[in-house]
Amino acid sequence: MSGRLGLAGAGLVIAGAVMIGAGALAGGGLGRFGLAAAREQVPTAGGTAGGPSGAAGGGYGFGMMGGGFGGFGGYGPGMMGGLAAQSAPGPGEAGFVAGTQASPRVIRIVAGPGDTFEPSSVTVAKGETVTFEVTGVGPLTHEFMVGPADAVAADQAGTPEVTGITMMQTASLTYTFDGTGPYAYACHAPGHYEAGMRGTITVAG
């Protein structure tokens, strides 16, 4: 009798392990799907934990920070599935509306993980006003400076910037592109610019 109970108990343990494994696989798969959606900049069904920026509130994607599915994806695909550098249509795209000082166009930037920006290049219309919403990803603290490319490269004092962007924190910076460029953005936290944390801005029109 005790032998049969022991076998039954072992069977239940194995069945539980299989169910846990299946749940983890499902969560991880949805997390990876969310990451793919983020890379493609496609809005998907996220949560409502913080706001429309996708990063802070999980407005986009399926990962843990997305507030949707794959809640235990961990640091990486599952967790980051909630991030998407989603922005309004840019110059030359259907539905494009140039930003103004009264109503800036929003461009979302993901800072990290590591010393990277996503996207690493953006296009603006000449004379338009853009609000950059920059969200930190990963354990590093970042900065975001935008302006004429030479001033950004030199970390010139007075060039518009926001600092202290930490994990899952979003900072905003509004800039009017009233010149011909070239323009750029960069992070000048120690060693980050040298590691390649910079982006280019093309002025169209």
CATH fourth-tier homologous superfamily of the largest domain: Cupredoxins -  blue copper proteins
Report the span from N to C terminus: 84 Å
Structural class per helix/strand content? alpha+beta
Which stretches are poorly predicted, pLDDT < 50 over at least 5 residues? 16-82
What is the fold-level CATH name, i.e. the topology of the largest domain? Immunoglobulin-like
Q: Major sheet: size, sense and barrel closure?
A: 5 strands, mixed
Q: From the alpha carbons, calculate the radius of gyration and give it in angstroms.
A: 22 Å
Number of domains: 2
Shape: globular
SSE map:
Blueprint: H1 2-40, H2 74-80, E1 105-111, E2 117-118, E3 121-125, E4 129-136, E5 142-148, H3 149-153, E6 161-165, E7 170-176, E8 183-186, E9 198-204
Parallel strand pairs: 1-4, 3-9
Antiparallel strand pairs: 1-2, 4-7, 5-6, 5-8, 8-9
Helix pairs in contact: 1-2
Could you please describe the fold and organization of this structure?
By secondary structure, this protein is α+β, with helices and mostly antiparallel strands. It has 2 domains: 2-80, no CATH class; 105-204, Cupredoxins -  blue copper proteins (Immunoglobulin-like, Sandwich), CATH 2.60.40.420. It is 25% helix and 25% strand. It has 3 helices and 9 strands, in the order H-H-E-E-E-E-E-H-E-E-E-E. It has helices at 2-40, 74-80, 149-153, and strands spanning 105-111, 117-118, 121-125, 129-136, 142-148, 161-165, 170-176, 183-186, 198-204. It has a 5-stranded mixed β-sheet. A 4-stranded mixed β-sheet has the order 2-1-4-7, with no helix packed on it. A hairpin with a 5-residue loop joins strand 1 (105-111) and strand 2. Helix 1 packs across helix 2. It is globular. Mean pLDDT is 72; it is low at 16-82.
